Amino acid sequence: MQSHGEKPNEYSFGSIVKMCASLALLLRGEQIHGCTVKTGFDLYVYVVNGVLDMYAKCKRIFEAEYIFRTMSGEKNNVTWTSMLTGYAKNGFAYKAIECFRDLRREGNESNHFTFPSVLTACGTVSARKVGVQVHGCIVKSGFIENIFVQSSLIAMYAKCRDMEAARVLLRGMDVDDEVSLNSMIVECVRQGLEDEALSLFGRMHERGLKIDEFTIPSVLNCFALSRREMNIACSVHCLMVKTGYGNYKLVNNALVDMYAKRGLMDSALKVFEEMIVKDVISWTALVTGNTHNGSYEEALKLFCDMRGEGISPDQIVTASVLSASAELTLLEFGKQVHGNYIKSGFPSSLSVDNSLVTMYTKCGSLEDANVVFNSMENRDLITWTALIVGYAKNGKAKDSLQSYNLMIGSGIKPDYITFIGLLFACSHAGLIEEAQHYFDSMRTVYGISPGPEHYACMIDLFGRSGDFVRVEELLIQMEVEPDATVWKAILAASRKHGNIENGERAAKTLMELEPNNAVPYVLLSNMYSAAGRQEEAANVRRLMKSRNISKEPGCSWVEGKGKVHSFMSEDRRHPRMVEIYSKVEEMMLLIKGVGYLPDMSFALQDLDKESKELGLAYHSEKLAVAFGLLAIPAGAPIRIIKNLRVCGDCHNAMKYISKVYLRHIILRDSNCFHHFRDGNCSCGDYW
Ligand SMILES: [Zn+2]
Ligand SMILES: [Zn+2]
């Protein structure tokens, strides 16, 4: 038109700019705005309204505001409504509310466009009081019959958590309004009213109303978080496919999340694999689900696949995969995740930092844990507890207690788990008085009743010093039934002090509590034989055999050159087996030269002396350390993980090995960490 030399008038400007608004064509819109200024048409209210609306719809709210403020002509209803709606739709709720007030003050009429906009704003910021006033205006101005206005009112009340008002309005509606029902369902789920959400959902389904793509994820969340029956969830899934939502990413993400949270990993994986477009949320749901269900290897594998697809991990998936590495004690992997996270440029979050502190302490790397801890701006109970437990498990009782004091000093109150760490630290360092003090403060200061874990630490502490009277007192004092950890502590103490009477009782109770555990049989038999009661020792071993109970085989892992190598006792499967066995021979020779004596009480009985000694030498942790000496460069620590507690003989040998080979050996057994350095162990020979 312009190229034909014809001049556009205010109506053609108005309609063209309107088109730009509805198509969100900002650049074109700006050009036309320029033309209107040049031609003076920007004085016509019809044109200005169009330009204002164009900027608001293109998310340029400040430009819209500028035009609104500086316009020379009279603002009409449309001007006000465009500005108000612009504010509401762009998330400026308070400005929208203010705009509504100005509009009323200037004596303008509101209509079925202004009311819903201001109500949306009220809902966004939970301004119920303003919402009620708007409701009053609506009634007065006769717009209450309008269905848009009604459904906005319902959404406003629901978002302001006034469900009763929302319900009354919903019941009063003449027709079943899809918009209102959808928004009610979403809000019910958000507020934990799952039954109501599901019943509304059922009603919509029965009457054939259209359920939108935002409502289905909400409904699926009902099943993710509760113990509700899964067959209903599956029918929701079917319905979803039937109604054509099968390809919606939002919907599928919610499905993956629901199945994963309920532990149905196969179904989660199936939905996931059928998704055409996957984003970080889809992957996160699957990774987190695996971590949550204890499938840590699978979680790590998926995480690697996700990276392979070029998707950058977010904070949630990072925290989750760090937890999985911590459980598997994969320090190298955890470090890589940490490094990548820093590189990704994501701002750090409390949950990621907490997972990092936990991962490093669980992998026995307190230095790294400290670096993260010190870099944190905010710390919460989880952060401090991770550090307190971490120090305790790594044989650093003093640091553990010191961190506890610092935590209390910073105003954070301890919880059940904090006290497990604290008492564990005390029991391993033999700090009877401190332990008693903390144990008492649990109830008197913090109102936490001690659980079996806390009693086990206390019993362990008294039992180790041979104070069986106090052990008995504690047993009587317990409000909860003593569990296996408590009896294990008693058994270990009885063995140490040769207290056969208590040992028998603890062993027999343990045999009932954990019928497949070989430990009570082995320890009891050893106790009898140490006391010279060979026949009873043999009886226990026979009983163990007749009940088909066998010792869980000891297994040790060592991370070397990016691979995890595992060793069983007397294992001959490793490709470098010949080298490893000759290294063991060398080790034994060298440490014997500096005073190591094999402790036969840890060997299998019924063997002659020489076979016993050889058997000891090929325990899994000794094979692992020999491999470590061969494969891990000098100066780097050797990190070993063992499934059972380290045996006394290996523990002793490790001390000598650390001295002879000048190596830091870190051994995590089923109970705690042992840092062997220069002939000593961080556990102070108590574990
Ligand atoms: Zn051993
Ligand atoms: Zn130790």
Automatic annotation (TrEMBL):
Pfam families, from UniProt? DYW_deaminase, E_motif, PPR, PPR_2
Q: Quote the Gene3D superfamilies the UniProt record gives.
A: Tetratricopeptide repeat domain
Which residue numbers delimit the DYW domain? 595-687
List keywords of the entry alphabetically. Answer: Repeat
Q: Where on the tree of life does the source sit, at the highest rank?
A: Eukaryota
InterPro entries tied to this protein: DYW_dom (IPR032867), E_motif (IPR046848), PPR_At4g14850-like_plant (IPR046960), PPR_rpt (IPR002885), TPR-like_helical_dom_sf (IPR011990)
Q: Name one GO molecular function term.
A: zinc ion binding
Q: Where are the PPR repeats?
A: 76-110, 177-211, 279-313, 380-414
One BP term from GO = RNA modification
The UniProt similarity line reads: Belongs to the PPR family. PCMP-H subfamily.
According to UniProt, the name of this protein is: DYW domain-containing protein
Q: Which source organism? A: Arabis alpina (Alpine rock-cress)
